[in-house]
Each structure stands twice: as C-alpha cells, then as structure tokens.
Fold these 2 entries.
Entry 1:
Amino acid sequence: MNETFAFWQQTLPSLLDGFYLSLQVTGASLLLGIPLGLLLALGLRSRQLLLRAPLLALIEVGRGASVIVLLQFVYFGMPTAGFTFSAFVSVTIAFTWCTAAYTSEILRAGMEAVPQGQREAAQALRLNGLDTLRLIILPQGLPISIPALLGFAILMLQASSLAFVVALPEVMSKAQLVGSNTFQYMPIFILVALMFAAICIPATVVVGHLERRLSRHF
Amino acid sequence: MTGDMLLAILGGIQWTVLLTLTSLAIGVLLGAGLCAMRTSGIRLLDLTACGLILGLRAVPPIVWLFLIFFGVGSGIVQVSAFQAAAVGLGLITAANMAEIFRGALAAVHRGQWEAARALSLPARWRMLDVIAPQLLRVSLPSIASYAIGLLKDTAIASTLGVPEIAFQATHVSQMTFQGLATFAFAGCLYIALSIPVAWASRWADQRMRSRVAR
C-alpha cells in the first residue's frame, strides 16, 4: 500500500499536467461548441430547405458517428484533403462538432419548452423576430436547458480522454506512458479513475440537484 | 476507395454488433440487480448501489477498459481485449440500466402492485407476470436509445485492438493513406447501423402499446 502511495506521489505531477490539458480541451470545445449549437438550433427553424439540409446533416453526423471516429476523421483524414492540424486543434475541432450537434438538440428542446402564448404575446406587441428571440425566448429557454448542458459538459470531460488516440498528451496518454515504462498499469489507471471521479461525482450530484429543483417549478 | 478497403471495414461490423449485444446483455442483467438493490428499502443495499452507480458513471469508458485490460489483465487473470471491452462497457451500461429501470418502475401504476397482492400472487410471479412486462414496455425506448449510444461507444474498444469498425478503419487508413474517405465511411457505417435499432424499437413500442391500449 505504501509503495502504491509513493508511486502515486511520484507520478501525480505529470498526470495533473495531463488532466489540465484535458480540462483545456473540454473548455475550448464547450466555449466554441455551445454557441455553435445555438446557431444550429436557430438555423434549423429557418424555412429555407437549402439552409436546413446541410445543418441537419452536420448535426446527424455529429451525433450519429462515434466521437473517436470524428476525432480520427479530423486528425488522420483532413490531411488527405490538404488541411493538417496539430493534435490539440484536431481534438478541439472534433469535440466542438460533437458539442454543437448535441447541444443544438438540448437548446432546441429548451426553446420549445417556452409556452406558445409567450410567442403570441410577443407578436401582439409587434416585437420583431430578433427581439422576440433576444428578450422573450432565450431568457426563458436557456435556463431550462442548463442542467442538460451541464450534464453534457460532464460527458465531454469524460470524452476528452479519447484524445489519447491522436496522441494528445492528456491524462490518458500520460498514464499509458507511465504504465508501459513501469508495468504498474493497475495503480496508474486507478489514479486516473480517481481523478475523474473526484470531479465527475460531485458534478453529477450538483446537476441532479439542479434538475430536481428546476422540475419543481415547471 | 477500392472494394478491398470497403470489405475490410465492413468486416468489423460483426465485432461491433457482437460487442454491443454482449455489453448490453451484461448491462441489463447487472442493471436489474442494481435496481433491485436501490429499491429494496434496505438502506445499506440502497447506498451501496447508489455509490456503485455514481462511481461507474463518473469514470470515462476508456479508463475502465484500460483498467480492466492492462490493470487486471497483467495481473492474475488473463483477459482478452474483447472480454475486457465487454465487461468494461457492460459495467457502465449496468449503471445506466439501473437508473432506466428505476425510472420505469416509478411509471408502473401502484394499483398493479396492489392488485397482484390482492390476488395473493407469490412475490416471484408478481414480479415476472405483472410488473416485468410493463417495466419492459415503459423502458424499451430508453433502452433502445442507450443501445444506440453503446453501439457508438464500442468504437473505444479499437484502442485495445478489438477488430471492430473503428479498428479496421484505422488499419485501412494506415495502409492506404486515405484517411478522409476511410473514416467518413466508418462514420456513416455507425449511423447506418443505428437506424435499424431505432426503427425496430419504434415498431416494438407501437406493437406493445397497441396490445395494451384500451
């Protein structure tokens, strides 16, 4: 047991570096992906089929294909088309795509939960489309989406460990490196699991609490 | 893309499907157990199950897979890549199934329990003949959408070397340097595989609904 703790103490700094990178990748993808998801959700409400069709394709592929395949598509595939990105940029592009696709559905559901009467009232007040969205729909629709968005953020943090396949030096890659050097696979992956659990368990509890509180009001 | 490349990737389908079904079966069985513990009314069992569910879901799938394949596998027991992937994904599925079943259990009307008790059905038959069929009907849509998610998650098993779709795609792209077409095809394959699952679930749901509709 003491040996394990000594081993953990020795490897923790390197793993924390990796975990910090995982958090960065997750943060970047959420910051880019959620606004993009909102744009996708709004774009889907357009009556123009020519606009709707490509957006729908983007969403369906982002949700339907495996994250790991999206990741490899960007990192190993795009260079064939003449675009070469670093591992960090590739991971951010793939995760942003995935985030935008999933959050567009979450945000759409949130906006649809706003009662129809609110829209009609806005129309009766002769608010234009942008003002209806800005002043009436979004302020009511976004709070409804928040627990689902936070739940998705937790899943994204977990998914960031998949960046391992494109050799981004995040926490999994670091752990695998330590494991293959020392053959101490069990302790090192338990440490990684504990790091994720330390963040995800409290976060899940908080999100569950928020969800219950919100559902009381509606 | 030549025919050989396509065939190589298509060859991964059987492993993807087999892995999905195996982990789903493990998940449904263990999930039913976890759900029974959570709803047993015994505080110690409830808390244990609650902790297990939280813990299983808090750790990313790839970490579970590596923990089982390299961690457990390099120690006492020999674990093949497929076994490690099936057990790892199965455990995560179990945690999610337990929550799905618990939600469905709440949706089965109280009167059904009371009526079964009034008929003095033994506890086992009360569960099997009265509650379980309704439970299945209520939880089927959630199980199907989880199964579709699981189908995509099996791609993670490619990191252990299970020769499923994503693994074959990686292999083909390394051989041919045609990453774009290869991974696009693999991505479409996952979407194509999930369509029949969604379709079958909707069909079964409608059939079961029409049988109990009044």
Entry 2:
Amino acid sequence: MVLSPLENQLKEATEWSLKSYLVSNAVFLSERLSSEPSSTTEDEELKLHLLAKCYLAESSPYKVVLILKNCSSVENLYLYALACFQTTKLEEAEKALLKCSLHTSAEVNYLLGQICERQSRIQDAISYYSKALNLNSNLWTAFEKLCELGYFIDTSISFKTDEKSEHLFPGESPSNFHPLTASNFGNWSPPPKLNSPAHKTPAKTSKDLKQLLAELGKAYQALSQYNTNEAMNLLKALPDSQKNSGWALCQMGRCCFEKYDFAGAVEYFQRAFQKEPQRTEDTDYYSSALWYEKKNSELCYTLHNALKNAYYAPQTWVIAGNFYSLQKERETAIKCFTRAIQLNPYYSYAYALCGHEHLANEDFDQARYHYESANNIDSRQYTALWGLGSLYFKQEKYTQSLQCYKAARSINPNSSIILTYLGVNYKATGHYEEAINCFESAIRIDKKNPLPKFQLGILLSQLDRDQEALSHLETLCQENSRESHLYIQIGKIYAKLGQPEKALRHYNDAQELNPKNHSEIKNLIEQLHGSSSLHMMP
Amino acid sequence: MSYLSPIGSPFTDVTDLFSHSELEGFPIDRPYTKTRIPLSANAHRREIGKLGIWTLSSAKLGNGVEQLRDDNVNTFWQSDGVQPHTVTVFFPRKIAVSEFCIFVDFKSDESYTPSKLSIYLGNTTTDLWEVQTVDLDEPTGWFNFSLGKQQGGAFRPVKTHIVQLMVLQNQHNGRDTHIREIKIFGPREDLKIAFPNFNSAAYSKYAFIH
C-alpha cells in the first residue's frame, strides 16, 4: 500500500473527522481521497472502504451500494452486504456474503441470519444466528433473535465457549477506542461518585461478561417462552446494578404485562423510564399497559414526552395510536399506527395493534391484512394470532378461528385469555367437553382472571348443570365483583330454575351496577313477568 | 315515515324544544344541519361509506363515484341522464347508520345544484322508505341529514342495508346534478368478540389482548 503524502493527510483527516462524529466533513474529505488516482486495486479498495464508512456514518446505505458494487476485498464485501441489507436488497447482500468466504466470523453469520429471517427462511436464519453466537458469545442480539424465532438454546453453554473466530475489523474493537481525556475538553471533570452500593463494593468486578450474559439470557429466554414467573425470579436474582437498569426493569414490566398484571407493569416501566429517560424500547408496551389500565392522563403525558424527545421513533407513534385508541378515535389511531409502520416496516406489534383498530371498525379486510403482516414478520406475535382468530370468530368461521387460537396457545401456553377464547370457540362449535377443559385450565393458570369462570358458568347452565353453574358464578360474586353482566347471568339461571324473586333481585343488582344496561335488563324483567312457563336461554 | 316528524311540524312536547340528539345535535323538528366544515369521525361516530358498494343512476365520464368520495370538494359527481338522479349505497352486512352528509356548492354549480332531495333507507331496492325530503334554496356547504329514528327526544341509529339519496329537482330546473362529496356515518361501537361489554375494569381488562 503506497499512499502519497496528500492521500495520507486526507486519510488521517477523514479518520479524525469520523472519530469526532463530524460526518459531513469526513464525507467531503474521503470523497477527495477517492478522487485521487490509485496505483493498485488494493489502494482503491482501501479508499472505497473509508468512503463507505463515511457514507454509513451519514446513514446513506444506498450510496454504499453504488460505490461498492464491484469491490472484492472481504471488508468491502461485508460493508456492501450490510448496505444492501439496509436497503432491502436481500439477494445481493446474501450473494456478496457468500462470496466473501469468511464463514468463521460472527458478524458475517449474524448478517446472513438477518437476511434469511427477512426472507422468512427461518431454519437457515436460526442456524446462522446459532453459529454467530457460538463464534462470539458477546453477540447478544443474535441470542435475542433466536428467542424471537422461538429457538431456545441452552444459555449456560452458549454463553460460555467461543469457537475460534476471525474478526473482520480486528483493529476496531472497542478496546482500541481512545476515551476523551480531560485535556481534550478543557475543564471537563469526572462525574461525582454516587453513593450506591454498586460503586462501593469491589464485588462488581467479580463477574465476568459471559456469566452476566448467561444470566440475562436465561431470564430473557424465559420471558420469550412466557414463563413469566421464572423470568421474574431470574431477573430479581440479577446483581443489583443490573437489576435496577432500564433494560431489566423493562423486562420485569414485560413479565407483569404478560401475566396481565398491568398495574405492576406500569410501575416497573415507570421506574425504568425514570432511571433511563432516553429509552424508547418498550415504551410501546408501557403505553399498552396504560391503555389496559385506562390511564388517560399518564398516556397523554408519555405521548407528549415521546413526541418532544423522539419524534421519529416508531414506538412514539404506537404510544400515539394507543392514546387515540383509548379515546376510541379509531381513524386517528390507525393513522398513528400506520406512521409507526412507515418508520419501521418490520414492526409487528404496530401491525397487530393497527389490526385491532380495523377489527373494531369492522373493516375485516384491512384487519386481516394487518394481522397477517404482523405474523409474517414475527411468527410468534400471538397478539396478532389472537386478533386473526377473533376476526374469524366474529365472522363465525369457527374452524379458522380455532386454528388461530390454537396456534396462539402453542406460543403462549400460559395465557388465560387465549385459553378462555379457545374455550369459547369450542363452545360455539358444540365441543362442550373441550370447552370445559379449556376454561378449567384457564382458571388454574390465572386465579385473578374471572372470565373463564364466567364462561364456564354460562356453559354449564346451557348444559342444564345449573347448580354447578350457580356455584361458579356466585363465587365470582363473592370476590367483590361489581360486574353487571355477572348478575344478569345469575338472574337468567334463577329465571330458568323458576325462581323469579331471586332472578329479579339479581336483575335489579345488575341494573344498579350499570345503569347503561337499562334496556336489556328491562326486557329481561318483562320476560320474567310475562312468561308463565319460564323459558329463557342462558 | 312514521318515526320522523315532517319538517316544520309543531312540537308535541315542551322538552323537545331543547333536546338535541345524542348524535349530532339535530334539532328535533328539522332533522338536518348545515355546517361549513364536514363532520368528522370521533369517539361516537365513524365513517362507514367505505364499507358500502356505491351505485349511481348515471354519471358523466370522469365524474363518478371516485370524485364523489375522494374527500375533495373541488371534484364532483355529475349525473348524465333523466331525473330523478340517485346515489345508492349498499352495505353487504346490515349496519347501523346515523348521519348522511353531502357537500353542494351553488356558487360554482348554479343550476346543477340540487334543490329537492329525498333520502331513503331499506333492506332491498324495492322496500325503500323515505327518511326525509328537503328543499334547499341556493345551498352552499355541508348538509348533514339524520338517518336515525326519533326516540325519547333523540335520534337513535337504525340498521339498514341500503342508503339512497334521490335528487328530485335542481335549482332553476337544471337537468343534471352536481354533488361534490358524500359521507355516511354510523355510530361507533365497542369491539365485542366473545363477551358482552363489561362495566367493571376487573372483567374488561381480560376481554382483549392488546
């Protein structure tokens, strides 16, 4: 490699600009450098590599695709593939990576995995990601991807051993990074030491990275499998410093969220965002938890902050969508979710939520499109599967809805809501035994969810097992329930059993609990008075 | 028809004087309002026109359903045939409707502007009933007609398959008609899948996966 003095100066100046994040300056200088004639192809490749790095720093991958089209060096092929991937030229990206014959480098395998995942070649993606993780156990995102794809590996092994791995950019590891010293920054002083125990104890160095990643991985994996209790315990067992980090608190929030303990979820998320106000990840789930809790003002406040700080973060627009969804302004909500999808076309949760809004609008074609898109992006997105099932259920296409609910259950077997819906679906097709089984296991899984018991009561009375039905529904009443429909159901059973006084009393209770149900209850009471032989469908 | 008092009929009840509809504040004696800006979807109503199949009695090439529904009052539908001109919206699923809004502009369309309109509802084209007939004098702006049934001092939405607008006459006896925009609104309904709408949070939070 022979560079002229001018070229050398340009190269150094570019590298300095890049290091100081003066991107446009770096681009200008490296463009000058690449205009200088090169004697060898090696020099040419080197200059292009620098230029490509500048363009990537400028986040213009399309420029990289154009300049590196005919390159041959390994580093440039990788950058070319990366840029192709970012501009969704997946086939070119894969071809370039397979050409570069660097299959023992973790980053190449990881990129290949991402390319395959985008093309829905899930098995290939899994094998690439596993290989990437084996080569370099610090590649946490590869592990995350494996969890998202539903491939659960043994964390105790995968984070321990590294196969012998080549690095594409050996000189660019973080250890080579020169931190800014006080002299660079005038009177810059180190931050005052905090009095938290993490800073005091020497124990903080006792853990090595692989051990930490294995612990985090185990918790993350349990959450991905919706073993929420296990995940919660693992997260709580983390060392204090990590346990109180934004990431871990958000994962705990997710655990509560998946257990349908939304108040708990809100609490954890709030702690997380208080600690790390810069976090945009998981703000979408936080806003959904607020949606469940119907916390209008908190949601509004979160949205306001998000719009102020991270206008272009896709999660911000999911918060906005949830805000409007809670107001039942469905068209505006759809617009917000669509914006989120625009900002990140692979945002499966936004697709699912958009589908929900369309479903509520009875716009079934759009709802189906969004649910299916969500599932194409993330086959483990059970929210979308539930939505698709409910869409078919509403259309009375019970075989299709059964398939969806079953698929959702296989992803999240610990969800009492999915089990309840599965039971309702069985009930609709007359498979009463299966329905009862579903309701009973839902009751076992989640004692706080009253709906399976409610449904079980209705079903049992339909099967003329009225006493059992009554005992189920009345236990619900004793749990201090303020639900008008529960009293209506009990009233209906008493009416059926020929005890109009008791029925009337329950109807009156129902009326008191929800005055809006006036017309329905009035009809029921009239029926009670009108019919001598009390024939009522439960 | 029976449930809609004809325009200008005397009040039967004093309370009617001040009662407005839950839907869009239609005065009880005159079931349409005129606004300068269109009604928009909100927490109580939603645009349902996109769920229907639209048919025009006749149209000039390039001035059809698309122009009628493009959310742009600078384009319009122009009929091209004998009166009465009709716009028929057929909903494949029976749906609750509450308001029917049209935009007409006498200043630009002059004798093309409708002067006498009827709105019909029904389940097939053969059993339509008239909801209201309105005379408009040189109208410009949005005219919002209630499609609802009068009940307890308010207009309540009705379920229907077909909504039809019939233009019976134009200003200055013009032959063809121009309508610039039509919107149909229905009530916003809560999403209901397998459960009734619960009133307590302990129940309703388990009714959906969000």
